[in-house]
Design brief:
The chain is α/β, with parallel strands linked by helices and 394 residues long. Helices cover 37% and strands 13% of the residues. It is built from twelve helices and twelve strands.
């Protein structure tokens, strides 16, 4: 097997994206003595007010991408913190109500940032129901409806699954959730900039976002909190009362500007990006279609084109056979860190052994046709090197 050690063929955009050059340029303008380096909370001099102006412009740019108003955007350190603020903040905020609706509904396919937070709340006494996916990997409105109870207060679901790329019918689910008197939180870390989001039209109450999934910097994210609901959320970070008291801490101007710029770029480039990525994904799938033993997971579900989950149905296949220059994921980054089989893949019916033979290829803005050709050639080389006798069903 040959590898190109001079060029990395990157297919792990779902884990993180490289910052767009336009984002980097905007961030650099906020650093150094000649930049806008002031503390946005310092209102007594121009360094602070200039920084505040950039922060508020970025807030408007993020809001515009999801159909929100700027006042509904709360800065956080990323989607993980946003998820914690939404779930823990809601539960703690409802505890003081005369008739608390503390029951939480989520799904078995959520990111660990939701599942671990839900588990933490369970240990503190919060009842949680985990919805199972359908055979195609989708979390259906009917399954969510069956999980709702009289005391359900919050439903938390992702819009796009981080491992198999499935799209959740959030609009239909939101209608059911609101009819039951509950609120809806959506983890949009994998959806922002990849699929259109209109929080008002979809009926979303809280929405978690992350910059580094949309060609912005790591370490910055946001939580959309629908107008009128801020008082329902108990802050998780105290000290200074920043972000209308919901999230204290000095705002990182350069990171916030980076996220705002990334969202502004997505607003103008998303349609063209998606069309190009869809063509590349189709080219990749067509290129491996004739190879024995390659299965596209969740192929019958509504999916984004960016994320392809492929199970290699050969007992002799190990992801390391693909070589170091083919940057794919063997599972989501959260599961890779834990060293455990993917709960998403097992949730859609794969065995632990089949999950270990599954790779995620995620495409992005900087994926080139030659990357696709490399991926096809590498998969072909590895699969054809395996004996037909090792082929087995998933």
């Amino acid at each position: 097997m040959t590898t190109n050690t001079e060029h990395l063929h990157y297919f792990d955009y779902a884990a993180t994206t490289p910052a767009d050059p336009r984002v980097i340029a905007a961030m650099c303008d906020c650093l150094g003595v000649d930049g806008v380096f002031g503390n946005p909370a310092s209102s007594s001099h121009s360094a602070g007010t200039r920084a505040r102006a950039l922060v508020e412009r970025a807030r408007r740019e993020v809001a515009a991408l999801i159909g929100a108003s700027a006042e509904e955007i709360v800065w956080t350190s990323g989607a993980t913190e946003s998820n914690n603020l939404a779930l823990k903040g809601y539960v703690e905020g409802t505890e003081s109500q005369p008739l608390p609706r503390a029951h939480l509904v989520t799904s078995e396919l959520e990111h660990k940032a939701i599942l671990d937070t839900a588990a933490s709340l369970e240990r503190r006494g919060t009842p949680v129901t985990y919805v199972r996916p359908g055979a195609d990997g989708a979390i259906t409105p009917a399954a969510v409806a069956a999980a709702l109870r009289e005391d359900t207060g919050l439903v938390s679901l992702m819009l796009v699954n981080n491992e198999i790329g499935t799209l959740t019918d959030i609009a239909a689910i939101a209608a059911l959730v609101h009819e039951a008197g509950a609120l809806l939180h959506v983890d949009a870390a994998q959806a922002l900039g990849k699929t259109p989001i209109d929080v008002k039209a979809l009926g979303i109450d809280f929405l978690s976002m992350s910059a580094h999934k949309v060609y912005g910097p790591k370490g910055i994210g946001a939580l959309y909190v629908r107008e009128g609901l801020a008082a329902r959320i108990a802050p998780q970070m105290h000290g200074g009362g920043h972000e209308r008291g919901l999230r204290s801490g000095t705002l990182a101007t350069h990171q916030i500007v980076g996220m705002g710029t990334a969202c502004a770029i997505a607003a103008t480039d998303m349609e063209a990006d998606n069309a190009r990525i869809a063509r590349l994904a189709a080219r990749l799938l067509e290129g491996v279609a004739g190879l024995p033993g390659i299965t596209l997971n969740a192929r019958e579900a509504r999916r984004i084109a960016h994320t392809l989950s492929l199970t290699i149905d050969h007992a002799g296949f190990f992801p390391f056979l693909l070589g170091p220059d083919f940057a794919v994921s063997t599972t989501s980054a959260c599961n890779s860190a834990a060293g455990t089989p993917s709960h998403v893949l097992m949730g859609i019916g794969l065995s632990a052994e089949a999950a270990s033979r599954t790779i995620r290829l995620s495409l992005g803005r900087f994926t080139k046709p030659e990357d696709i050709d490399f991926a096809i050639a590498m998969l072909r080389e590895v699969v054809e090197s395996l004996s037909p006798a090792t082929a087995q069903a998933v």
